[in-house]
Amino acid sequence: MNISLTIAELKDAEAIHEMQIKSFVPLLVKYQDFETSPANELIEKIITRINQPFTDYYVIENDGVTVGGIRIVKMGNQRYRVSPIFILPEYQGKGIAQKVFELIEKVYCDARVWELETLLQEAGNRHLYEKLGYKQTGKMEPVNSKVTLVFYEKYLATPEEI
Q1: Which CATH superfamily, name and number, covers 3-161?
Q2: Nearest to 7 by CA among 56, 45, 55
Q3: 3-state DSSP: the chain helix, strand, coil percent, rounded to 5?
């Protein structure tokens, strides 16, 4: 496995949009979250994000094959947010996301805090993030009667240092 990240450009927006839909449709079908699911986003939202000065969007490749994407939001004060990360379904469960997080932490080596959210009902996602050192903040937001967002943080410095 040879994972690499390439900063996304506007020309990548369509491919990112297609991968995002393919990656999130199973969750959209399962939880009927038509309001906030990344599978329901328009390509214009991805274009906007690519153009944001406080956002870095990356295309994820495995052995030269495009397999997903990750967006890093620079929150300021050495705090970063992952929103979203996605791997195409046929490449999930192979350790790619774990490797991507390792690479991202090297790129943003000044980070003191990472944050993200995921679906409470998706134990596999929660297990991955917890294995990577993320801890639940205690904040949860119901999306609808079927699904709830759970929020995570990972401290690379002690809370007192932040």
Answers
A1: Gcn5-related N-acetyltransferase (GNAT) (3.40.630.30)
A2: 56
A3: 40, 35, 25
pTM recorded for the entire structure: 0.94
- Is the separation of the CB atoms in 134 and 103 below 8 Å? no
Residue 84 tokens, joined: 């979203």
Q: What is the pLDDT along the chain (162 residues), one digit of tens a residue?
A: 899 999 999 999 999 999 999 999 999 999 999 989 999 999 999 999 999 999 999 999 999 999 999 999 999 999 999 999 999 999 999 999 999 999 999 999 999 999 999 999 999 999 999 999 999 999 999 999 999 999 999 999 765 665
Distance in angstroms (rounded) separating the CA atoms of residues 130 and 8: 27
